[in-house]
Amino acid sequence: MSQRYDCADHDQRTAGLAEAASAVRRGDLVVIPTDTVYGIGADAFTHSAVNALLEAKGRGRETPVPVLVGTVRAANALVESLGTYGQDLVDAFWPGPLTLVLKANRSLSWDLGESKGTVAVRMPLHPVALDLLKETGPMAVSSANRSGAPAATTADEAQEQLGDSVSVYLDAGPCTDNAPSTIVDLTTPVPRVLRKGAIPVDKLRGVVGYLATED
């Protein structure tokens, strides 16, 4: 049976964060608020937990699960390097709705799907998410919805779709901005926008100069 905590209440927030951290450590799934939409998360390094996340969403392995981090230091440990443009983008937009696709650290033992040696990493601008991530370390997190359904912008919407496949729901009220994160691929010589989202392309260009887009 799932547990749900109202993070607007101080005591429930404290208890919810503790229970969510315990759930992640034992390989269970949690739903957390972010600065975009609600996410379903698992320990990034527990293969069975990531597989359970994909199963809960009804999603295949062809689209790897992104990773959320609570600190820039944690992000650096996951990748070979931030590259020519990564540090400037991190300085400008993290924490916030910018996902960076980078070459993954080859020494890590994880399985996020068919990632082809890359990882999509982001540091969200939400206090509940950041507090949990600082306790758990990097988490594999995808939008908290069944594949093909609208992304959940409330804990209610997430729970209606995911039910008891999730151990802990952290409810922080409706998402204030449900635009998805902007995704930028930094694995090629020229940065490329893979998905337009909350951060406009012109703001990105103000930091990195030339930026390839799909259109």
List the helices and strands and how they pair.
Layout: E1 3-6, H1 10-25, E2 30-32, E3 39-43, H2 47-57, E4 67-68, H3 72-78, H4 83-93, E5 98-103, E6 118-122, H5 127-136, E7 139-143, H6 155-162, E8 168-171, E9 182-185, E10 192-195, H7 201-208
Parallel strand pairs: 1-8, 2-8, 4-6, 5-9
Antiparallel strand pairs: 2-3, 3-7, 4-7, 5-6, 9-10
Describe the structure.
- It is a single chain.
- With 215 residues, this protein is of the alpha/beta class.
- The chain has 7 helices and 10 strands.
- It has a 10-stranded mixed beta sheet, with helices on both faces.
- α1 runs parallel beside α5.
- The longest helix has 16 residues.
Distance between the termini: 46 Å
Spans of at least 5 consecutive residues whose pLDDT stays below 50 are none
- The structural class is alpha/beta
Number of helices: 7
- β content, as a range? 15-25%
User: What shape does the CA trace take?
Assistant: globular
Strand order, main sheet: write it out.
1-8-2-3-7-4-6-5-9-10
Major beta-sheet overview: 10 strands, mixed
| Helix-residue proportion | 25-40%
The total beta strand count reads 10
Q: What are the secondary-structure elements, in order, as H or E?
A: EHEEHEHHEEHEHEEEH
Residue-averaged pLDDT: 95
Rounded to an integer in angstroms, the radius of gyration calculated over CA atoms is: 16 Å
For this entry, give a set of tags.
single chain, 215 residues, alpha/beta, ten-stranded mixed β-sheet, globular
Short description:
The longest helix is centred in the first third of the chain and has 16 residues, at 10-25.
